[in-house]
Amino acid sequence: MACNTNALSGKIVINVCDARKLGHISNYELDLCDGRITAVFVPGECGFLGFSRGSDIRIPWDKIRKIGEDAILVEIPPRPVECSAAPPKKKKLF
Predict the structure, then answer these.
(1) Which range of residues forms the domain containing residue 42?
(2) Which residues contact 31 (CB under 8 A, 6 or more apart)?
């Protein structure tokens, strides 16, 4: 299958692990020796009220499972949620 980068950038990237829409491809990583795409990047999630976007999400080429007409399916395991082991201690008033 032949495809140019403009066609790839127009497709929505969906993670099949959690069915999240990750966005559209914003950048590519190339292996100049082989002339192949080694990874794609999608913009990171937006912060509070759309401010302070996170760093781009790097998706290695071997994590792409299917390139369809309208979407690119990828398999990226969800990141573990960080939580503290114990809740913070409350101050005593008296």
Answers:
(1) 5-74
(2) 37, 38
Residue 24 maps to which CATH number? 2.30.30.240
Name the E strands within the chain: 12-15, 20-24, 27-31, 36-42, 57-60, 64-67, 71-74
Question: Which of 32, 31, 55 has its CA nearest to residue 42?
Answer: 55
The answer to the question of residue 42 being in a domain is: yes
CA-derived radius of gyration, the chain: 19
Of 31, 29, 34, 26, nearest to 10 (Cα)?
26
pTM here is 0.72
Q: What is the pLDDT of residues 15-44, one digit of tens each?
A: 999 999 999 999 999 999 998 999 999 988
CB 42 within 8 A of CB 31: no
